[in-house]
Amino acid sequence: MKKHKWLAPVAFALLVLVTIYVVSRQSATFTAEGFLEYLGSIPAWGLLAATACMLGFIFFEGMGLLALCRAMGYPRHWYRGVLYSAADIYFSAITPSATGGQPASALLMVGDGIPAAVTTVVLLLNLALYNLSLLGVMGVGICVYPQVFSAFGAPAHVLIILGVVLHVVLLAGICLLVFHEKIFLRIMNAFLHLGQKLHMLKGAEARREKFLKIEADYKQSAGTLHRKVRFILEAFLYNLLQRVAVTLVPAVLYAASIGGMKGAGKLFAIQSMAAVGANSVPVPGAVGVADYLYLDGYGSLVADPVNLELLSRAFSFYICVLVCAVLLLVALLTQKASRKCDQ
Question: Could you count the other beta carbons within 10 Å of the beta carbon of residue 341?
């Protein structure tokens, strides 16, 4: 691997370390010994439940992608779906605004013989379903526990509202791209024309021709999905389960360590709102932003929320990213070993 390819994961690791240090400093009484004591006080079932939720986050995304691939006529083994998901989660974590996740999944899918046009439609629609499930889980949380939103401070309110707006815009844009190609093409042409008029964009015509070619390639693929509603609903269910799984991590840890089931529902609602707000700032893995929101929200239920925040974030993000990296590394080494055997 070239040296520059190490920059993103190294920068991400440094950002994680800095964030953990900053978070731990938010409590005057926090110590490493105290955190280990807190960890040891959690029953085994709580740690196992958190682990299962974390693994479910990876697994359910992969199954959602495979459901859409089957709809397009390209069934693949469940393990390949898990790898598509692992690539998305890992590279989303180490790149700003999750820009590397979708391309990484696309490379694996195309490598498995799924055409680029089909891959594009599948990933775009899955992203739309993910955003819809994210907003849906948050919506349920607000409806059941409307008072939870006031648990956050003013800066967190801004981030959450901004996150909702960005997710709605992204969801609408993806739906236009997949299901209303003509409308999206007109919008793109208008932006290209405006950029050319303002001398802000060179080679607008070449860009438009390239876009037209891409649009023609996936138009047929998108049309296929119009007749596969059952598979879309199945993929949405998997995306919903994915969101519920990761949102449950702090709730089960809280239930196991602090308050039983009392308050776990409110913590679930807090987590769902914080997850939306965490995506409003283009920071790799939302590191720092997510931690701030979680601490802010958890503080309404826990006197000293640092231990709970660090442990739940460890399961739902840090360990999850590490598991995805290991899965991808094992797949890469297995592939290289298989090639050597074939030679």
Answer: 7
pLDDT at residue 227 is higher than 50: yes
For residue 30, being part of any structural domain is answered with no
User: What is d(CA 126, CA 51) in angstroms, rounded to the nearest whole number?
Assistant: 24
Q: What are phi and psi of 288, to 5 degrees?
A: 95, -55
* H or E element at residue 339: helix 319-342
Q: Choose the weakest-confidence range: 40-54, 190-204, 257-271, 308-322.
A: 190-204
The pLDDT mean for the chain works out to: 81
Our count of domains for the chain comes to: 1
User: Which residue is it, tokens 């379903």?
Assistant: 129
CA distance 179 to 314: 38
| Type of residue found at 130 | Y
Closest of 251, 296, 247 to residue 23, by C-alpha: 296
Taking Cα atoms as reference points, which of 270, 242, 192 lies closest to residue 65?
Answer: 242
Judge whether 290 and 17 are in contact, CB under 8 Å: no
Return the higher-pLDDT residue of 211 and 160: 160
SS (H, E, C) 204-246: HHHHHHHHHHHHHHHHHHHHHHHCCHHHHHHHHHHHHHHHHHH
Query: What residues make up the domain containing 120?
Result: 41-342
For residue 142, count CB atoms less than 10 angstroms from its CB and return exposed for 0-12, middle for 13-18, buried for 19 or more: middle
Residue 101 lies in a domain: yes
> pTM (2 decimals)?
0.81
Identify whether the C-beta of residue 309 lies closer than 8 Å to the C-beta of residue 295: yes
Longest dimension (CA), the chain: 65
pLDDT, tens digit, for every residue of 285-307? 566 778 888 888 888 888 778 88
Does residue 13 sit within a domain? no
Confidence of residue 125 (pLDDT cuts 50, 70, 90): confident
